């Protein structure tokens, strides 16, 4: 994977390539705060793609400083352009954040043709576009596109105990794991049972619609378990106003701005979320098991 990314960068004309493993930082500084805030779009959808954009922006700025660059470029368009470009400008107002496809007026066909000339694998335009990271996968295209069908899972349900310490998931079935390992393991377990798949129809600013499939097994399971633990320990769940505002901050690309820091501080006194929640995984469903 690392060599392939390096080869693509050099083939595209890059003078140097910086390849970073930022999974631990992604979990510690982005996933866990959003989990504690119960930040689910419309109360249902994990924001895996949107949550990854400020981290990408942060690394763009860091590499720009290493290379003494004045412009950073990215491939995001539309809403994701805002989610990537705004954090860049917040972290370093002197940098210019350039959305290449928009600035150069590139079509998907032109991008594919250029990739072919470089010997790169070109995605099948009939297949859904995919954005994938540790927290989840987002797939979508046009209104009538065919999204992948879930394969049949195991016949027998699985039961998993998720332990939290002050809002941080720390163990599965009694085995202590680092957060990155825990998320990866739970994603495999819940994914085998078809958990964490959600369909959504998005409406763009121009009125166009597109179908989106979210596949985020660990995210769905951990949000469910954390919400149950907070409600059990405090008698009520996370205030809807906090969750809604946190989601809006992520959606608007304002991760590094004052409101998120204020929201994080406001949650410090809301339920310690320490304890264990038992989940049942079966046939696409993730449910809390009451002992």
Total DSSP E strands: 11
Following the backbone from N to C, one meets helices and strands in this order, namely HHHEHEHHEEEEEHEEHHHEE
Largest sheet data: 5 strands, antiparallel
**Spatial order of strands in the largest sheet:** 7-6-5-10-11
* Shape summary: globular
The parts where pLDDT drops under 50 for at least 5 residues are none
Averaged pLDDT: 86
Question: What does this 3D model show about the protein?
Answer:
This protein is α+β, with helices and mostly antiparallel strands and 291 residues long. 43% of the residues lie in helices and 20% in strands. It starts with a helix and ends with a strand. The mean pLDDT is 86. It is globular and about 60 Å long.
Sum this structure up briefly.
The chain is an alpha+beta fold. Helix content is 43%, strand content 20%. It is built from ten helices and eleven strands.
């Amino acid at each position: 994977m690392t060599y392939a990314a390096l080869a693509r960068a050099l083939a595209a004309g890059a003078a140097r390539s910086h390849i970073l493993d930022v999974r631990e930082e992604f979990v510690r500084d982005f996933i866990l705060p959003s989990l504690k805030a119960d930040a689910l779009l419309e109360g249902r959808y994990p924001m895996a793609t949107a949550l990854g954009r400020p981290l990408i922006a942060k690394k763009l700025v860091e590499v720009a400083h290493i290379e003494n660059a004045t412009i950073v470029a990215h491939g995001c368009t539309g809403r994701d352009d805002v989610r990537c470009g705004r954090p860049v400008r917040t972290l370093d107002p002197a940098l210019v954040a350039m959305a290449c496809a928009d600035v150069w007026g590139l079509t998907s066909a032109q991008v594919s043709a250029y990739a072919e000339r470089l010997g790169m694998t070109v995605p099948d335009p009939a297949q859904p576009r995919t954005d994938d990271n540790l927290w989840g996968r987002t797939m979508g295209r046009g209104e009538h596109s065919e999204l992948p069908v879930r394969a049949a899972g195991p016949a027998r349900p699985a039961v998993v105990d998720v332990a939290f310490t002050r809002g941080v998931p720390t163990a599965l079935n009694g085995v202590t794991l680092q957060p990155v390992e825990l998320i990866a393991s739970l994603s495999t377990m819940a994914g085998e049972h078809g958990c964490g798949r959600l369909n959504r129809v998005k409406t763009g600013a121009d009125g166009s619609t597109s179908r989106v499939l979210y596949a985020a097994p660990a995210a769905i399971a951990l949000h469910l378990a954390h919400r149950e633990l907070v409600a059990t320990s405090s008698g009520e769940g996370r205030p809807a106003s906090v969750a809604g505002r946190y989601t809006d901050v992520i959606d608007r690309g304002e991760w590094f701005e004052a409101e998120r820091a204020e929201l994080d501080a406001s949650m410090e006194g809301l339920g310690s979320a320490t304890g264990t929640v038992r989940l049942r995984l079966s046939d696409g469903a993730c449910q809390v098991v009451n002992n």
